[in-house]
Design brief:
single chain; 348 residues; alpha/beta; six-stranded parallel sheet; 17 helices; 15% strand; elongated
């Protein structure tokens, strides 16, 4: 039996009951990646999913499935959870102690960008993860770091997306430059910088999609309502609507995170596939994902004046903007799920 332990999406009514850390679970990058992997696996084999959101609520069916997965000697286990969190460390330790044979057939999908640094400082955890059949990291930089530490089981599996089943046409800019923020909404993701920049650029439109941190909600919505060129569009349900068609309506994705733990943000990959270049902060692994001046722009000076200057330049130079859009779409082909599924099934 193949078990997949991950943070899978929940129905919205159920998710609201499990709000954690100011957020409704099920709308973050880990969930988006787990849902995508699960969907692809289910098309080829039978999978038993174990949802960590339900485990944290001690839901009996999930707990029973977890015990069966961990204790079964012939099970194949896939793990897609926050790789530096307590649950990942505890699960790895339990498998190491009680089911090492099962662990040696298990696959661990690393989520986030700090895994290599974390296991370097946590030798016990490093010893445990070395026993997995494969530990897939999201960037080539993390892969090199892991192999330098002796993780011979490390492999590369980026935050992939299923390519659209229709041709994406590069959008021509209209009268106003259209910018979009497409992530969880709180200051550390750069929303405060974007709002300050919007005040300098009344000729540019800014749309925000995503779940809002409850501690930031009042501040964010109050600010939005004072700016005529800004709009909060709500939470995009990727299960029901087409994310590529949505993103293709815009000219630029803004991803100005200050979170050092970022791995390969799914929003950047979805934007690439939609022919949408991104302006990103110079942090975490963004330089590996975005090639400055080719498929996006890296904002080295994290200031509203610098961001405003970049957006003005794009607004005034249609040829440059179109070149970035073409570059983004070309780059996106490298993150197609189809490129990596054969390797995954080969080791299951």
């Amino acid at each position: 039996m193949v078990y997949f332990i991950g943070s899978f999406s929940l129905p919205q009514k159920e998710a609201k009951k499990v709000r954690m850390g100011g957020f409704i679970p099920g709308y973050g990058g880990v969930t988006a990646k787990d849902d995508t992997i699960l969907k692809q696996l289910k098309e080829r084999t039978e999978i038993v999913e174990i949802n960590t959101f339900l485990l944290k609520r001690c839901k009996r069916p999930e707990v029973i499935k977890l015990l069966k997965a961990v204790l079964g000697r012939r099970n194949r286990i896939l793990i897609g959870i926050s790789s530096c969190g307590r649950f990942a460390r505890a699960l790895s330790a339990v498998l190491y102690l009680v089911n090492r044979r099962g662990m040696e057939e298990a696959v661990f999908f690393v989520m986030g960008g700090l895994f290599a640094d974390f296991i370097r400082e946590n030798r016990g955890y490093q010893k445990h993860v070395k026993r997995y059949k494969r530990v897939y990291v999201e960037t080539q930089a993390m892969l090199r770091q892991c192999r330098e530490m002796g993780l011979k089981n490390a492999g590369y599996f980026p935050n992939c997306r299923i390519k659209p089943d229709f041709d994406i046409q590069i959008r021509k800019k209209g009268e106003r430059l259209q910018c979009v923020f497409f992530s969880m909404i709180y200051p550390e993701k750069g929303t405060d910088l974007i709002l300050e920049t919007a005040k300098l650029l009344p000729e540019v439109d800014f749309s925000f999609w995503g779940a809002i941190n409850e501690d930031y909600e009042d501040v964010f919505l109050k600010e939005i309502h004072t700016l005529e060129n800004c709009c909060y569009c709500g939470i995009f349900d990727k299960n029901e609507k087409d994310v590529y068609r949505l993103l293709n309506r815009y000219d630029i994705l803004l991803f100005l995170t200050r979170c050092k733990s970022e791995g390969v943000p799914g929003a950047l990959i979805e934007a690439k596939m939609a022919g949408l270049p991104a302006i990103v902060s110079d942090i975490a692994h963004n330089r590996e994902i975005v090639e400055d001046g080719v498929d996006g722009i890296i904002l080295t000076d994290y200031a509203k004046e610098s961001l405003a200057a970049v957006l003005r330049a794009l607004d005034e130079d249609d040829l440059y903007l179109t070149g970035l859009k073409n570059g983004a779409q070309k780059s996106g082909a490298g993150y197609s799920f189809e490129n990596y599924m054969d390797e995954l099934f080969a080791i299951l």
